Amino acid sequence: MSISIRIDGTPVEVDAEPGDTILDALLMAGVGFAYSCQAGNCGTCRCELVDGDVLELECSEHALSAEDQARDIVLACRTQVWGDTVIRKLDAEEFIVHPSRILRCTVASIDRLTHDILRLRLDIRAGGPFSFSAGQYASLEFPFAPGRARDYSMASRPDETVLEFHIRELPGGVVSAGIAGLQIGDAVRVSGPFGTSYLRSAHEGPVLLIAGGSGLAPIRSIVSTLRASGARNPVHAYFGGRAERDVYGESGLRAQVEGFHGSDAHVVLSDPDAASGEHAGPRRFGLVTDAVAADFDDFDGFKAYVAGPPAMVEAATRLLESRGMALRDIHADAFHPAAAPATPEVTT
Ligand code: FES
Fold first, then answer.
1. What per-residue confidence (pLDDT) applies to 94?
2. How many angstroms does the Cα of residue 342 sit away from the middle of ligand 1?
3. Atom of ligand 1 nearest to the CA of 77
4. Which of 24, 27, 33, 38 has the most ligand 1 atoms within 8 A of CB, as the residue to mutate?
5. Strands 187-194, 207-212: parallel, antiparallel or unpaired by DSSP?
6. What is the distance in A from the centroid of ligand 1 to the CA of 248?
7. Quick check: 339 pLDDT over 50?
């Protein structure tokens, strides 16, 4: 027996099998639907149940409050369908649909940003246009490593024609080492876009950006998209690295942020002995999350975008939650290095 899941107010209607979760059915049908943990913990997939025979599975009260439940809000990842079902999106921006594309691209340029981060810029030759939201990522596959695609966030704005990625070279990483050897004109296959940690552009409150290492890529895309749109949100940007040699993109970040509607930018080095040479602005020392904690007592009305190493993303999420930010306002991407050749390598 096939069951239908319809999204009220949209043309979207998909088939599901009894017992499928709403999220699984939508994703299997290629419908873009915001999600993150897929385990009932984050609340990203909240939607309103308009009608249907469903079974709600256990979830975290942080993801779905008693108040939510009283309003028939459900978690798409924790709601099984057992009959035809109608849901309604809560916030138009939580629900983005960019067509999935496979692009044939060529290398427009490749250069070094730090001792271990490369900037790769790609021209789209076929398969476009590539529509995405700032903060999303794509999967890149290179001719020297067929079948070993790696995920990288777009550092460029959605309206730019050249795609930019920041690639961290991993010790012993065969793919990232191969990327360093790319030449202008070499072919690259790009598929996407993916990811739910994208800019919610209807939000008018303060925006907190926290980046570690090559996590600056999606943060750069988000802040430059905000600036290009003329949005007036105060932006508080934090970029963390271990030492001075890990810092890149600082001038551009400061130019996009400082002096703009009460916004500020901070570079935070975790090694207090590591400041050296000329740089584009002041330095703070310690963990980037400690700098954020020192600057804010609460995050009322904020949305946060966090990208970088998993430990930093986890620490930032814990901090923001402990200071009152709802999980649904924390949009985080942890960049896990590839564990094995066949495993997608989310490095930026
Ligand atoms: Fe459903 Fe996190 S994706 S609660």
1. 54
2. 26
3. 1
4. 38
5. unpaired
6. 33
7. no
pTM of the model: 0.75
Higher pLDDT, 93 or 251: 251
One-letter identity of residue 240: G
Give residue-wise pLDDT tens across range 179-222. Answer: 999 999 999 999 988 887 899 988 889 999 999 999 999 999 99
Same fold, 3-88 and 101-194: no
Q: Which residues contact 69 (CB under 8 A, 6 or more apart)?
A: none
Ligand 1 nearest atom to the CA of residue 75, by list position: 1
Is 341 a residue whose pLDDT tops 60? no
Q: What are the boundaries of each domain within the chain?
A: 3-88, 101-194, 207-334
Burial of residue 86 (CB within 10 Å: 0-12, 13-18, 19+) is middle
Confidence tier at 174 by pLDDT (50, 70, 90): confident
**In the CATH scheme, what architecture does the domain 101-194 have?**
Beta Barrel (2.40)
CATH topology of domain 207-334: Rossmann fold (3.40.50)
The answer to whether the Cα torsion of 311, 314, 113, 279 is positive or negative is negative
Query: Is 176 exposed, middle or buried (CB count within 10 Å of its CB: 0-12, 13-18, 19+)?
Result: buried
Determine the atom of ligand 1 nearest the C-alpha atom of 42: 2
CATH code of the domain made up of 3-88: 3.10.20.30
Q: Note the pLDDT of residue 10.
A: 84
Ligand 1 centroid, distance to 25 Cα (angstroms): 14
Between the CA of 22 and the centroid of ligand 1 the distance, in Å, is: 11
For a mutational test of ligand 1's pocket, the pick from 33, 44, 47, 89, i.e. the residue with the most ligand atoms closer than 8 A to its C-beta, is: 44
Q: Whose CA is nearest to atom 4 of ligand 1?
A: 40
What is the mean pLDDT of the segment spanning 74-78? Answer: 95
CA-64 nearest atom, ligand 1: 4
Task: Tell me the C-alpha distance between 233 and 278, whole Å.
Answer: 30
Structure tokens at 268: 């935070």
Which residues sit with their C-beta closer than 6 Å to ligand 1?
35-38, 40-45, 63, 75, 77
pLDDT digits over 219-234, tens only?
Answer: 999 999 999 999 999 9
